[in-house]
Every structure is written in structure tokens, then in C-alpha cells.
């Protein structure tokens, strides 16, 4: 039987149009190529039912456009982790003829051909035309030569296109080969070339029905038997590698054969992952990142503040008195503005995280910390999710998918929201800026920066201790392994990094735009009504507003923590998203002030005094207690919705809300009451 | 002798892998086949994972798992 693909676009894909899948090993440069092919024409969505990012984009060429789907990176079709399961399930569906792509681009790291072509050869069984994108050509050793045409012919793929995503070379050729592959009639043998006839008849008998491609069925049948452990001596990996290595010996030439020679990265690693030096360097890097968030961001933050001030003055000048103007200035500009100002810090944080990941350093951190993490009931691969948690818990929780043991993945998810995310940064920044003096301590450290680091440290330390506790408590022995590749150190592609940072910033702003604007408006109403007709000068009307009433009702509960009714309202609105705290306070003060301009929140909070005693409402101690509350509190509903999806039960998110709320309440109480005992106020 | 018996920088040839099915399948898929040469690159302290070089790439494997990779003596 021969397969012809000239017409496969008819059955292929969404809406009957032609589309292309991008498949490859982790770290082969798939994302970089996807970005180059699609430019800004991409959208990120979820696979139905599961929270796995599905990236789709449109590639434009002179000979028509095609749609491109990016799959998560994987080494093979025998999944170990949830991440890889997604890919293998998707490919299994294609093998059954369910919406297969018209062409597959198999991204291959040219510096590690054998291992990368393993997946390519598995994809070939699908009988879908394959174009190999031979990436990282700029990193190829000079003495290494590859005969691309011969490689394509011997493997039996439509084309091999050498390229470099970094230098943006070879992309036009890749596109035109894909277009070619759409219309080319491609003949593919109906059994894998590495199976002899004896094997073919043996595995044909155990092949499952329903595979559109008999070749895939045969390979899958052997895979299933390998998986169950009864391999009768035939092993897919052994046979495939033999076939690949044989081809490579004919199409590649190396003047000096040195597969095990130390690479340049290895020399770097002598220092960067040194037994004792490595961890010290890691901690220094973290410290540097957090200090820079505070120092570098102040300049753009001042600009934004200035811009917002001017904007609201402008609106006040141009619009006539009335409720609409009040909503706009006090509610929306005050509320949203208080959040937008934190954009620079969020951009800086995600910039550094992306940098650590893209250079290949994060894999080293996982290697260095695996032993320690295992001791805490976690996994070397928990490090990246936990660090992403510093930016946002949601991508962090989603990136636990590559942890290959369910128990360790669950423990990682349970503690992840304790990593202070960037939504808490506005709260910390506001309180630190307003109440912690900017003085130098210990001759070297800025007290404000130090306080910030302390908050991150507190969350992280408690998270690790709880990981141990939860892991004991869940019991169940773990069966994980830790087999990861340590990719070579690479200079990241600036465009890729910037795109990532841009997407993070956009998500933050969209959130600020939607949730925060809505809450700011609702809050403005609650804080402004009912209006008191003749406001007597002593008592501000906001006390009698709905918001004031709710806040005052909460006061008895939060008084032991040193919080007043305004903070109470902030805590309530924070359930939507933590950073709303800041906009809430801003809206309350704006309404309270009722002046022409938006108030400076920092100064307003500092100047706030108790109406009767005249003592300051907020002291450094209250600020500290409030920060500790935010370190622990379960406030972001989106996080728990994701946990619900990833753990497939309400049990775990509910558990998290309970334990985090308890931690927050008693932690803040301990700080406030303890501080008072020590004589602070 | 097993993989963990190699000292830093030393090279050995894989004789066979004696691990449970899932682990040995995964190791094979990453190219650790009988007869392949491996070099010990790094050992994390306290019997943490080891880093080896095989087939032009660097892999990290936990100590216990590495002990199931037998080398020709
Ligand atoms: N030198 C070089 N680096 C590349 C190339 N393509 C990607 N990279 C880098 O390799 C790393 C992994 O790339 P990425 O696209 O994130 O890989 P993915 O994991 O397959 O999506 C990043 O640091 C990229 O900047 C290339 O052609 N040449």
C-alpha cells in the first residue's frame, strides 16, 4: 500500500484548511522558530478541558498562508510526564486519522543529531510529510559536515532545511519547503525501515485497529510491548538508533570524532555548578534580581506616576463637574493608575526569569538543587515552577507538568502560591516605600531592599517546610526519576526574550484593565454612596458609605492584626487579585479626599491619622503585619481555578485556601502582637 | 562496575541497564544503549545526581538510577 498526500490537506486539520504542526525535543529552538514563522500572528489558548498552553499562529508566505500549531517539547512518544503525554496523545489521534496536520515540521538540534532524529523517525511512521528544520546551525562545530540532501533522501523526509533561528537564517527556505510538501506526492513505505519482515509479521498480529497508518500501528505495537516489559529482545530504541546511526555515518563527516570531548559549557560549569560555589552564585543572582527590581524600576515608576497625575489633572480641567468625572478620576484613573505603576517591576522580574531559563542556567539549578529538593519532598524540576511562582503562580503551576511523579507534582502545586508573585509586589512596594526608611544597614544593604528580600524569603522558607510536611502527610511512595538534559549555555535570542516579557506585561495590563477597572468602579460606588447630605467636618462621609460599613463590620476580626476598616475592604477585594489591594486603597483615599486631583497613595497612607486619638493609623509594625499577611494569604481566585483543573478535584484548592488563610491570619497576628509586646507600636 | 564507580572525567562503556522497565526504556530512548561510551562529568554532593556525557549531550541522572547502569570492566 502506498500513501499519497497530495490530497491530505482536504481531510487535514481545522476547517479543512491546511495546517502544520511543529514538533521537537525540549530546547531545540522550537519556540524561537515558531515566533519567526508567525511573527505577531499568534494566539495562546488552552487545549479543551486541560490547562495546557496551545500556541497557534499564522505563517505568511508568497505562495499562501498556513496555520501553525506548536506542541510542547518531548523526547519520544513514550510519555513520562504529563507534558509529554499531551504530545503523544495528540500524535496518536493524528495516527488514527483525526484532524492530522498536512505537514509536520520536525525541529532538530543540529549539534545533537542522533538523539533529535529519534523523535523525527517516530513521527515518520505517521505517513505525514515531514520537513526537518535543522536548527542551531550557527553552533555547529567547524569540522562537522552534514550532507542535507542525502540526509533527506536516506531518512525519507520531504526536505531538510538548515537554519539558525538565532541569526534568522533559512526561514524563507523552510517556508517554501513546507509549501512544497503540501503539494508533493510523497511515497512512504508501509512498514518501518528498521523492522525486518519477521518483526513486521510478528507485530502486525498485535497491532491495534484504527490506525490510519499501518506503519505507526506496527511501531506502536512494539512500543506497547516494550512498555509492558516483555520485549522478546526487540527494542524500539535499540533498533531505531541503529538505523539512525547507520544513516548518520553515511551523511555526516567529522574530521575528528570526539563525541565525549568537553564542551565550552562544561568549562563554565566548573565554576557555575561548583559544589559549593554554585549555590552561592545562585543565591547571589537571586539577591541581585530583587535588589534591581527596587532600584532600577524607580525611574520609570516616577514617570508613570507623573503621567497619571497629569492625565487626571487634564481630565478634571476638560470635564465639567459631575458623577461621571468623579468615577473617571477617583475610580478608574485612581484605581488602574495605582496598578499600572508596577508594570516596570513586573517587566524586570520576568526579564530576568526568562534570561535564566533561556541561557540554560535553570537546568543547572535543577541539577544542583535536586538532592535538597528531594529531601524536602519536592523534585529538581520543582525549582523552575517555584521560581516562575515569583512572577505568577498560574504559569508556575502549569509548568509543574513536566515533573514525572504525581506526588511531587502535587506537593509543588500546593506550596507554589506561597512564592511571592508579582501581584504581591505592588503591595510590598507600597508599604515598604511608605513605612520602611531607606537607610543603609550593615554598611552595605538598603533596608527597603532587604525588607523586600525578607518577604520573599519568608514565603519561600515556609513553602519548603510545608512541602516536607505535606509530603509526609500524603504518604504514598514517590517513583520519580530525574533525567534531564543539561543544554549548552547559550546566548539568548533578544527578540525571544523581549517577546516573552512583552506577553507577561500585556497579561498584567489586560488584567488591570478588566478585573481591576471593574472592581474600582464597583468600589467607587460602594465608597461614595449613600451620600451624606450635610457632611459635618469631623466625620468623613466615606465612613457611612456601604464600603465603610462593610469595612467597619470586619474590624473586630482583623483588629488583632493591627488592621483597620480600610485594609479590611482591601483584603476583601484582594480575593479577585492581590494587586487590587493597592487600587482599592487608592480609590478609598481618592473618594475620601474628594479633591480635584488623584492623591499620592504613599503620602495619604502616611498622613492618615486616627480621627479621635490623632495617632497614625498605619505604623511600620502594621505595615509589616500586613505584608506578612500578604505573603501567606490565599487571595487570587484564578490560582485556585487552575489548581482545580490541574488536580482535577476541588479537594486540593479548598485545602490550599484553608491552610493559607490560617497561616496568613496567625502569621500577621504573631507579628503585630509580638511587635507590641516588644514595645513597638 | 556501575556508572557511579567512574571517577570524574573517566570514560566507560555501557554493558547493560538493569533498571525497571520504565527507567530503562527512557534511558535507551535518550541514547544510552549497550556499547555506548559515557563520560562522568560531575557528581553533585551527598550522592545527588550525576552528570554524564553521552552522544554529544549532557544528561543528569539520580545516583540510584545511575547505579543501575552497568559498565564493562
Ligand atoms: N545559537 C542558537 N541558539 C538558539 C537557536 N534557536 C534557539 N536558540 C536558543 O536556544 C534556547 C532554547 O530555545 P527555545 O526556542 O526556547 O527552545 P524550545 O524549548 O524548543 O522552545 C534559547 O536560549 C534560544 O535563544 C539557534 O538557531 N542558534
Structural overview:
The complex is a heterodimer of chains A (about 675) and B (about 70). Chain A has about 675 residues and is α/β, with parallel strands linked by helices. Among the domains of chain A are: about 20-185, 3-Layer(aba) Sandwich (Rossmann fold), CATH 3.40.50.300; about 195-255, no CATH class. Chain A has helices at about 10, 30-40, 80-95, 115-125, 150-155, 170-185, 195-205, 215-230, 235-250, 265-270, 275-295, 300-320, 325-340, 345-360, 360-375, 385-390, 395-400, 405-415, 425-435, 445-475, 495-530, 545-560, 565-575, 580-595, 600-605, 620-630, 635-645, 650-675; strands at about 20-25, 40-45, 55-60, 65-70, 105-110, 130-135, 145, 160, 250-255, 440, 445, 485. In chain A, the strands form three sheets. Chain A has a seven-stranded mixed beta sheet with strand order 2-3-4-1-5-6-8, sandwiched between helices. Chain A has a two-stranded antiparallel ribbon with strand order 7-9. A two-stranded antiparallel sheet of chain A has the order 10-11. In chain A, α18 packs antiparallel against α20 and α19 packs antiparallel against α26. The longest helix of chain A has about 35 residues, at about 495-530. The model of chain A is unreliable at about 1-15 and about 45-50 (pLDDT under 50). With about 70 residues, chain B is of the alpha+beta class. Chain B has two helices and five strands, in the order βαβββαβ. The radius of gyration of chain B is 11 Å and the shape is globular. The interface of A and B includes residues 111, 229, 238, 266 and 485 of A. β12 (about 485) of chain A pairs antiparallel with β4 (about 55-60) of chain B, so a sheet runs across the interface. The structure holds guanosine-5'-diphosphate.
Amino acid at each position: 500500500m502506498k500513501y499519497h498526500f497530495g490530497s491530505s490537506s482536504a481531510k487535514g486539520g481545522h476547517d479543512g484548511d491546511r495546517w502544520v504542526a511543529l514538533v521537537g525535543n525540549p530546547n531545540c529552538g522550537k519556540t524561537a522558530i515558531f515566533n519567526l514563522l508567525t511573527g505577531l500572528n499568534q494566539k495562546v489558548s488552552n487545549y479543551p478541558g486541560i490547562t495546557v498552553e496551545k500556541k497557534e499562529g499564522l505563517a505568511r508566505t508568497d505562495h499562501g498562508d498556513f496555520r501553525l500549531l506548536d506542541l510542547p517539547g518531548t523526547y519520544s512518544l513514550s510519555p513520562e510526564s504529563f507534558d509529554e503525554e499531551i504530545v503523544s496523545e495528540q500524535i496518536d489521534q493524528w495516527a488514527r486519522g483525526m484532524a492530522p496536520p498536512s505537514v509536520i515540521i520536525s525541529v532538530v538540534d543540529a549539534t545533537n543529531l542522533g538523539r533529535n532524529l529519534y523523535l523525527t523517525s517516530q513521527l515518520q511512521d505517521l505517513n505525514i510529510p515531514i520537513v526537518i528544520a535543522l536548527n542551531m546551525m550557527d553552533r555547529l562545530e567547524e569540522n562537522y559536515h552534514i550532507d542535507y540532501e542525502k540526509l533527506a533522501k536516506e531518512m525519507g523526509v520531504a526536505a531538510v532545511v538548515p537554519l539558525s533561528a538565532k541569526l534568522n537564517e533559512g526561514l524563507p527556505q523552510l517556508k517554501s519547503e513546507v509549501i512544497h510538501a503540501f503539494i508533493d506526492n510523497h511515497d512512504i513505505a508501509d512498514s518501518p525501515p528498521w523492522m525486518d519482515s519477521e518483526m513486521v509479521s510478528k507485530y502486525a498480529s498485535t497491532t491495534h485497529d484504527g490506525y490510519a497508518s499501518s506503519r505507526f500501528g506496527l511501531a506502536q505495537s512494539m512500543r506497547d510491548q516494550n512498555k509492558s516489559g516483555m520485549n522478546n529482545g526487540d527494542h524500539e530504541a535499540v533498533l531505531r538508533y541503529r538505523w539512525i546511526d547507520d544513516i548518520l555515518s553515511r551523511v555526516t563527516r567529522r574530521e575528528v570524532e570526539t563525541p565525549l570531548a568537553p564542551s565550552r559549557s562544561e568549562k563554565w560549569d566548573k565554576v557555575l555548578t561548583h559544589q559549593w560555589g554554585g549555590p552561592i552564585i545562585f543565591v547571589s543572582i537571586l539577591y541581585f534580581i530583587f535588589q534591581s527590581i527596587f532600584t532600577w524600576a524607580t525611574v520609570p515608576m516616577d514617570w508613570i506616576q507623573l503621567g497619571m497625575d497629569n492625565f487626571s489633572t487634564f481630565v478634571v480641567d476638560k470635564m465639567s463637574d459631575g458623577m461621571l468625572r468623579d468615577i473617571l478620576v477617583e475610580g478608574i484613573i485612581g484605581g488602574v493608575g495605582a496598578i499600572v505603576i508596577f508594570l516596570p517591576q513586573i517587566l524586570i522580574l520576568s526579564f530576568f526569569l526568562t534570561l535564566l531559563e533561556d541561557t540554560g542556567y535553570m537546568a543547572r539549578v535543577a541539577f544542583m538543587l535536586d538532592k535538597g529538593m528531594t529531601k524536602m519532598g519536592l523534585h529538581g524540576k520543582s525549582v523552575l515552577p517555584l521560581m516562575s511562582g515569583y512572577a505568577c503562580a498560574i504559569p508556575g503551576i502549569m509548568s509543574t507538568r513536566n515533573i514525572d511523579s504525581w506526588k511531587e507534582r502535587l506537593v509543588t502545586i500546593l506550596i507554589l502560591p506561597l512564592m511571592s508573585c508579582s501581584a504581591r509586589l505592588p503591595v510590598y512596594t507600597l508599604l515598604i516605600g511608605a513605612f520602611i526608611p531607606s537607610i543603609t544597614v550593615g554598611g552595605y544593604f538598603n533596608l527597603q531592599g532587604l525588607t523586600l528580600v525578607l518577604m520573599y524569603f519568608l514565603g519561600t522558607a515556609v513553602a519548603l517546610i510545608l512541602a516536607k510536611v505535606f509530603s509526609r502527610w500524603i504518604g504514598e511512595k514517590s517513583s520519580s526519576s530525574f533525567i534531564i538534559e543539561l543544554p549548552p549555555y547559550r546566548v539568548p535570542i533578544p527578540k525571544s526574550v523581549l517577546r516573552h516579557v512583552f506577553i507577561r506585561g500585556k497579561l498584567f495590563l489586560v488584567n488591570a484593565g478588566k478585573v481591576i477597572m471593574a472592581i474600582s468602579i464597583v468600589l467607587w460606588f460602594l465608597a461614595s454612596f449613600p451620600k451624606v447630605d450635610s457632611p459635618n467636618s469631623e466625620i468623613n462621609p466615606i465612613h457611612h458609605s456601604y464600603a465603610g460599613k462593610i469595612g467597619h463590620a470586619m474590624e473586630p476580626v482583623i483588629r488583632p492584626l493591627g488592621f483597620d476598616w480600610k485594609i479590611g475592604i482591601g483584603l476583601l477585594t484582594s480575593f479577585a487579585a492581590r494587586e487590587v489591594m493597592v487600587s482599592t486603597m487608592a480609590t478609598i483615599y481618592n473618594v475620601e479626599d474628594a479633591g480635584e486631583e488623584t492623591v499620592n497613595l504613599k503620602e495619604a497612607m502616611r498622613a492618615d491619622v486616627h480621627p479621635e486619638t490623632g495617632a497614625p493609623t498605619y505604623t511600620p509594625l502594621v505595615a509589616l503585619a500586613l505584608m506578612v499577611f500578604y505573603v501567606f494569604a490565599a487571595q487570587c481566585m484564578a490560582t485556585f481555578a487552575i489548581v482545580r483543573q490541574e488536580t482535577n478535584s476541588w479537594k486540593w484548592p479548598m485545602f490550599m485556601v484553608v491552610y493559607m488563610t490560617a497561616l496568613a491570619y496567625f502569621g500577621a497576628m504573631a507579628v503585630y502582637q509580638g511587635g507590641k509586646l516588644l514595645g513597638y507600636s | 562496575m556501575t556508572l557511579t564507580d567512574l571517577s570524574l572525567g573517566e570514560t566507560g562503556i555501557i554493558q547493560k541497564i538493569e533498571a525497571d522497565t520504565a527507567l530503562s526504556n527512557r534511558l535507551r530512548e535518550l541514547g544510552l544503549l549497550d556499547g555506548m561510551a559515557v563520560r562522568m562529568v560531575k557528581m553533585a554532593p551527598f550522592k545527588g545526581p550525576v552528570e554524564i556525557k553521552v552522544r554529544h549531550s549532557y544528561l543528569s541522572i539520580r545516583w540510584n538510577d545511575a547505579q543501575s547502569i552497568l559498565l564493562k570492566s
